[in-house]
Write a sequence for this structure.
């Protein structure tokens, strides 16, 4: 028999813990599930569970993220060719991906846990804003007119509310009517002006190597290595939505958001869940040409951040770099970094670097 390496053993144990935790949460609910019962079900020790996850809530978020990432496509959904059709398809996909009624209470404690303290509330608010940006950008590429992030916010409010009520009040509401309402929201007339703020972050021309490891793009659900020319934004979860400043400043530039956290074991799974809940539906409901030119990579280990020269991260981190010809040629740190790095003319930064 082939002996497993330490890394393979850890991965196998982690998978066993996730499977056991999913079953316990589905049967008992989050509140009544005990770590000891998860360990017993996984045929592991309590210590083995804690060596993979720092606590029950972190494990709960990881279970929900894993389910979202592996959810199968909803049958008979075709991408919409208009904004209304696409939003109706998005709603049908969203509602069709909800678990069967006997498992639905698996996710019932998500919002109470998010609301339980500031550690989760503030990141989750930013993640919802990032979801609205992703959906809004897709709507804009389909309609080719104006900013649609406010419309996207309203659609997401409707869909999240429908999900919560489906779990809390089974039988309440009609899925066809929810899809029809989302279709009509495409034509909602709401003010949505984009303002460029006077940021004070300073851009520095640099000449540094850029050799990032691969990461998983939650938008397109594929492994990527962000080596091509463009902007990379390393963002703590209190600053996740700031990537829109990079996207708006240079719509034709490839932008990669690298999400980091000071509490990665708990909050990065929450980020994976929040983003994948939307993008898993978006990929099915919207034509591929409308998917935003924005990659979102959840960096739980900090490896991508370190490659960008960010050795220590927190949920307030905002660092943006400009990549050209395999080098980091410009860098900014602090509030507004995404905007100023993207707005800086690359040729000017390169000249300054050569001059230095």
């Amino acid at each position: 028999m082939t002996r497993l390496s330490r890394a393979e053993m850890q991965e196998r144990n982690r998978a066993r813990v996730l499977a056991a935790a999913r079953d316990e949460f589905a049967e008992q609910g989050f509140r009544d599930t005990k770590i000891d019962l998860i360990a017993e079900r996984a045929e592991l020790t309590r210590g083995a569970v804690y060596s993979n996850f720092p606590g029950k809530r972190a494990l709960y978020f990881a279970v929900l993220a894993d389910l979202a990432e592996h959810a199968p496509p909803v049958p008979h959904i075709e991408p919409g060719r208009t904004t209304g059709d696409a939003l109706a398809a998005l709603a049908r996909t969203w509602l069709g991906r909800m678990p069967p009624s006997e498992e639905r209470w698996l996710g019932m404690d998500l919002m109470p846990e998010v609301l339980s303290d500031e550690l989760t509330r503030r990141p989750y608010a930013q993640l919802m804003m990032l979801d609205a940006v992703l959906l809004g950008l897709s709507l804009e590429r389909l309609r080719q007119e104006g900013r649609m992030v406010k419309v996207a916010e309203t659609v997401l409010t409707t869909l999240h509310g429908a999900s919560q009520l489906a779990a809390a009040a089974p039988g309440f509401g009609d899925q066809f009517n929810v899809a029809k309402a989302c279709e009509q929201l495409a034509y909602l007339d709401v003010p949505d002006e984009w303002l460029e703020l006077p940021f004070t972050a300073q851009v520095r021309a640099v000449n540094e190597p850029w050799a990032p490891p691969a990461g998983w793009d939650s938008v397109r659900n594929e492994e990527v290595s962000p080596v091509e020319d463009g902007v990379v934004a390393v963002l703590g979860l209190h600053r996740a939505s700031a990537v829109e400043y990079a996207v708006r400043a240079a719509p034709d530039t490839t932008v990669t958001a690298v999400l980091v956290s000071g509490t990665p074991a708990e909050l990065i799974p929450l980020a994976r869940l929040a983003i994948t809940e939307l993008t898993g539906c978006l990929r099915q409901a919207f034509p591929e040409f409308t998917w935003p030119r924005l990659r979102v990579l959840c960096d739980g280990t900090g490896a991508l951040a370190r490659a960008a020269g960010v050795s220590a991260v927190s949920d307030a981190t905002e660092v943006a770099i400009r990549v050209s010809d395999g080098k980091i040629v410009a860098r900014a740190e602090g509030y507004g970094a995404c905007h100023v790095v993207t707005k800086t003319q690359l040729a000017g930064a390169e000249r300054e670097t050569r001059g230095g």
